[in-house]
Amino acid sequence: MKTLLWLFIVAASSTLMMLFVYPIFSFSKSSKEFFEISVNISNNSTPFLWPSSSYMIGGMDRFEWYRKQMYLKEKIIKLKTTSNISTLSAYEFEHEITVTITSKDRMGFRVYCRYMDESNLEVGEPFKSFTYPEYTVACQKRFGTRKIGLSVERNGEFQSFPLINRMLKKPKYELSICIAPLYGSEPKWLMFIEMIEHYKLQGVQHFYTHIHNASIYDLKVINDYVGTGELEIHYLLERDRRTDDHWQMVHIADCVVWSRFESRWTIFADLDERIYMSNYIGTIRRYVQSVDNERIGSLKFRQQWVLKTEQMPEKYEGEEELTEWMPTHRWHNSTGIGAPGHTSKCIIDTSKVFVMWVHSVSQFFPDGNYIEAGVKPTDGLVRHYRDQSMGNWGDKWLRVVLRFGVLRNTDYPKSLIEKLTENVKRKAEYVYGVVD
Ligand SMILES: *[C@@H]1O[C@H](CO)[C@@H](O)[C@H](O)[C@H]1NC(C)=O
Ligand SMILES: *[C@@H]1O[C@H](CO)[C@@H](O)[C@H](O)[C@H]1NC(C)=O
Ligand SMILES: *[C@@H]1O[C@H](CO)[C@@H](O)[C@H](O)[C@H]1NC(C)=O
Ligand SMILES: *[C@@H]1O[C@H](CO)[C@@H](O)[C@H](O)[C@H]1NC(C)=O
Ligand SMILES: *[C@@H]1O[C@H](CO)[C@@H](O)[C@H](O)[C@H]1NC(C)=O
User: Fold this and answer.
1) pLDDT score of 361
2) What Cα–Cα distance (Å) separates residue 97 from each residue in 8, 33, 93, 164, 167?
3) Whose Cα sits closest to atom 10 in ligand 1?
């Protein structure tokens, strides 16, 4: 009976979708390449209010709304079943508990939420849910729950995870960053220190990242930033077989939920990308404070690629090495600026975003008419130290991005490089400048 009613709702709403939404959608999609609304900046920072939070989404029960999206986007009605599921983290919001998973290719699978109380005893009956959007499961809230797990059968095995509190009255941070997962064998310590110190100068207050694999040497400085409370890490354990670059979507899905309601604005960028303000006088934090339109859920920054032609040094060898090897000092040979929408990087309000992709928002929540807005390159840009050999980029993509302009030398902002260098030196010396 319930299923029939559901089918009816889906069929009715998908007819509406075809009539009204698809034409608009395809229009905006094809025109995106050529046109973007620009952000307007005011001199007063507008007082911040969370978008009003409600159990209902788009006028319906939130779990039904999720199910409807799963049908509209993936054509999944009947839930699939699997023999295993791997949990990553669990977050308690006002209206649901959101659990993230690492299992690959598991969209639209049936899972059961399992609730544990403070004595590690199960609370109530398992709640049947499903994996949607990718790497995400929504669970109904249940009184007395301290931990939650997922099982693939109603009474199957599960591992329970403590709930991370996201029932916050106001955001803890105005500006944070989600750094793409760390993996691969290139030494990262110096790239990592420069990235953190750069964003701290831009007013970033908190760093979230995922590690799939890192060397003990790199972990020294990474863990030092964890110790200072500036950085949080979730480890990604492989239980399927995937290539390392397939961790990025897990990272994005988890970080959207992780930062949601904890940070007002969140940057999504890679280790080798430095978003900076160009002619705009002020930090990124000052800039996002001045965005004067509550409908803006995403600010898109255009890219400029700076050719990185060598691997980073393996170990700290003293101050001179740093001025020689810090990416901002070493690499200058740059492409033109990517067209609007071309591999842009975003600063988003994750409370407004339902599904995020690498270069743009895939889907906003429906109540609020949210939009993405482009940041003018004269205000801000992504300076991307793009390794030429990694993924064969130099052969495959350089020619493509050369259509944005001929190669020429550009510099990291002169007003910041001295302070940045000083801060990188201080950190590197502090962590690595001791005799082993
Ligand atoms: C910026 O201001 C212009 C002119 O007032 C307006 O047309 C445009 O929609 C605004 N953009 C945003 C993103 O609010
Ligand atoms: C914002 O403030 C700056 C510096 O105080 C000033 O030059 C500028 O004209 C102001 N802009 C607006 C739109 O009020
Ligand atoms: C986990 O489930 C997936 C998809 O259902 C399956 O392909 C895989 O073999 C399973 N792995 C194990 C270890 O059971
Ligand atoms: C993990 O990282 C270390 C240090 O960079 C490297 O030696 C090792 O090959 C990596 N392992 C995998 C499985 O990528
Ligand atoms: C920039 O890189 C290109 C392509 O590798 C190279 O031909 C050119 O000489 C470089 N320019 C400078 C100023 O180093």
Assistant:
1) 96
2) 28, 37, 6, 9, 10
3) 40
Tell how far the Cα of 333 is from the centroid of ligand 5, in angstroms: 6
**Same fold across 51-167 and 173-432:** no
The pLDDT of residue 141 is 98
Which residues lie with the beta carbon below 6 Å from any ligand 4 atom?
185, 213, 215
Query: What residue ranges line ligand 5, CB within 6 angstroms?
Result: 307, 333, 407, 409
Confirm or reject CATH 3.90.550 for domain 173-432, answering yes or no.
yes
- C-alpha span between 34 and 261 (Å, rounded): 32
**Alpha-carbon torsion angle 235, 239, 243, 248, nearest 10:** -40
**Atom 11 (ligand 3) nearest CA:** 84
**Ligand 1 pocket test: which of 40, 46, 299, 347 has the largest number of ligand atoms within 8 Å of its C-beta?**
40
Indicate the domain borders of the chain.
Answer: 51-167, 173-432
> What pLDDT is recorded for position 421?
98
State which residues of the chain have pLDDT below 50.
1-34
How much is the pLDDT for 169?
87
Q: What is the pLDDT of residue 13?
A: 40
Nearest-CA residue for atom 4 of ligand 4: 215
184 CA closest ligand 4 atom index: 14
CA distances 136 to 150, 284, 369, 414, Å, are 11, 30, 23, 43
Domain range 51-167, its CATH number among 2.60.40, 1.10.10, 3.40.50, 1.10.238? 2.60.40
Q: Two tokens at 400?
A: 């493509």
Q: pTM here?
A: 0.90
Nearest CA, atom 2, ligand 1: 40
Position 46 scores a pLDDT of 66
